[in-house]
Amino acid sequence: MSRAALILLCLAAACDRRPAEEIESAAVVAVKTAPAAVRDIVGVVHATGVVAPAPGADLVVVAPEVARIVEMPRAAGDAVRPGDVLVRFEMPGSAADVQKQQAEAARARAAVDQARAAQQRATDLFERGVAARREVEESRRAAADAEAAVAQADAALAAARTLAGRAVVRATFAGIVAARQHNPGDLVEPSTTDPVLRVIDPHRLEVIVSVPLADVTRVRVGAAARLVGIGPGGGAGIDGPALHVVSAPALVEAGTATVPVRLRPAGPLAAPVGAPVQVDIDAEHHARAVVVPAAAVVREGEETAVFVAAGGKAQRRRVRVGLADADGVEIVSGVSAGEPVIVDGQAGLPDGAAIK
After folding, report:
1. If pLDDT is split at 50, 70 and 90, which confidence band does 20 have?
2. Among 301, 263, 196, which residue's Cα sits nearest to residue 45?
3. Which of the chain's ends, N or C, has fewer CB atoms near its CB within 10 Å?
């Protein structure tokens, strides 16, 4: 065969070859459809958080001054009742200060007695015409100054006794010892970085979540929420009581783009304090929205589309989506209620393809 004939044969074969898309579209594709439903849909804010004691349900014992521990009758995990001794400190500085202030108060009272006696003598002498009025006035001022000194000494003594009274720390509520960092005989510093003991009430727990800044305006006080997983990855859904938001987003956490929000459970939480959890918070509510299964939505770059089954063909519709929940996605425009949308088999399906 000559070279020219070969070229003509190739050109003829090429002219007879149809585009791949036409061949694919000629085949009937089996798909699965579901009707676009009309129902209420609630937007959800996904957030991560930790289980934490509620306000007033957490007691961290810190030494009031440099002190030595002389008694710690409770171990980690032990139950405590209100009034139980948690820690007893030995604080020589406080004891010495109490003694000093007691002596100062005694001297101040003695000075008052002397000033009053001097005032009485001056008054008697003035009445007999022996002393001048100026001496009486000076004795009155001296007595008043002595009484003021007594009040000042009593206040200093009360403050010293209050500080000394902190040598014994008692439980203020019923709970359990969550952590114990020291033992009797240890010398401890008056610093929050060196806590001695921590007591929590396991029956009064909350969840503190970090809400992204973009979702802050969607969270409202009183909104319902629920635990959906535990751990950094979320994991499987966990059993737990319903939650509701009890604090409004107010302050951005330092170094993050999130805002802490407190959630209070309707019942006891089974998770321990500090456990990381995943939470869904109910946000916007749209009534009678057009909703399709999430599997029907196809995202290609910045464009979102849905395939609708009509007349044995697959019609690709560009849509605008709204809220989403666990069961579907709201379609704001592009699909009408009741239209059958393809939920399976639309991957790679061209617009106008034959379907069954």
Report:
1. very low
2. 263
3. N
